[in-house]
Amino acid sequence: MKYIFERNPDTGDIFRREFNNYNKREKLENNMEKVSLYDYLGHAAGTELGQEVATAARKAGVKGEIREVSNPKYRGPVMLWPKAFLDLYFRGGLNEGTSGKQLLKG
User: Fold this and answer.
1) Is residue 33 within 8 Å of residue 64, measured between CB atoms?
2) Could you identify which of 20, 79, 88, 96 might form a hypothetical disulfide with 64, taking C-beta atoms 3.0 to 4.6 angstroms apart as the criterion?
3) What's the pLDDT at 59?
C-alpha cells in the first residue's frame, strides 16, 4: 500500500492517507523529534540521498533545521528532519508530485 503524507501548516500535525484516497486520512503521532540522516540511518547518507530527502520534504511542506557538527570525518552543517517524516519517507511514502515510483526502500 502506498501512502501520501501531509502536514498541516497551522498545527504541524502530520497525516497519512492512501494514494488517491481523499476521503480518509490518519493522524500520525505528533513526533516532531528531529534527527539527522546519519542518526536515523546509522551511517553517512551522502549528498545525493540528502538532496532527495530535502526535495521530498520541500514538496511535503516539512521544514528541517540545521545543526553544526564537528567530528574527525566531517565538520559543517547537517540537516535535521522530523523523525515521523523520515519514517514515512523510508517506508515508501509517495508524494503525488513525484513521478509515481517509490522514493526509497528502507
Assistant:
1) no
2) 79
3) 86
Q: Smallest Cα–Cα separation from 4: which of 13, 20, 61?
A: 20
Question: Does residue 92 contact residue 56 with C-beta atoms inside 8 Å?
Answer: no
Place of cell 517506508: 91
CB proximity list for 23: less than 8 A, separation 6 or greater: none
pTM for the predicted model, two decimal places: 0.59
The 3-state DSSP composition of the chain as helix, strand, coil percent (nearest 5) reads 25, 30, 45
Please spell the DSSP secondary structure of 43-54, one letter per residue.
S---HHHHHHHH
Cα–Cα distances (Å) from 82 to 7, 37, 74, 85, in that order, read 11, 10, 22, 5
Nearest 5°: the CA angle 9, 14, 15 is: 115
Average of per-residue pLDDT across 60-70 = 88
- Mean pLDDT, rounded, for 27-35: 73
